[in-house]
Design a protein that fits this description.
The structure is a single chain. This protein has 143 residues and is of the alpha+beta class. It has one domain. Helix content is 17%, strand content 47%. Strands 6-5-4-1-12 form a 5-stranded antiparallel beta sheet, with helices on one face.
Length: 143
């Protein structure tokens, strides 16, 4: 029930964002590994990441596969300062938290301000450690 409620809330927010002609930015990246975005597992490949700023400034990210044309929506849970190395390089970036079992989308930075968007990732069992993989994004469209 909780999962269904969350999905309905995300869909409602996304529709509201589109309905009010929210500003959007589109980024493209080639992701070399299988990864999880929200609760969905996605295969390696080319993806578009559309950052939609909805009413009230609440961000939503639409992740669209170039191969399958399927789209999922994920909502950041908060923002944090982008790592210094990212800010110095000045390129938009994605970060994935990876264990020996799976990778999860954990951050998106647009290179337009200091804050990066942070996404929920599964908690690790005590015996496992995470490793971060970074992928550079390319801005393909800005409104």
């Amino acid at each position: 029930m909780k999962n269904l409620t969350m999905r309905l809330m995300i869909a409602t927010v996304a529709l509201a964002a589109v309905a009010v002609s929210a500003s959007a930015q589109t980024y493209k990246a080639d992701v070399p590994m299988t990864f999880r975005a929200g609760t969905t597992v996605l295969e390696p490949g080319s993806y578009e990441f559309n950052l939609i700023m909805g009413q009230g400034g609440h961000p939503i990210v639409a992740v669209r596969s170039a191969e399958s044309r399927s789209t999922i929506l994920v909502m950041p849970i908060y923002t944090s300062d982008a790592p210094k190395a990212w800010r110095k390089a000045g390129n938009p970036m994605l970060a994935f938290e990876c264990t020996n079992r799976t990778c999860s989308l954990s951050k998106l930075w647009t290179a337009q301000d200091i804050a990066s968007y942070v996404f929920p990732v599964s908690k690790l069992p005590p015996a496992e450690t995470a490793e971060t993989h970074v992928v550079t994004l390319a801005l393909t469209k800005a409104d």
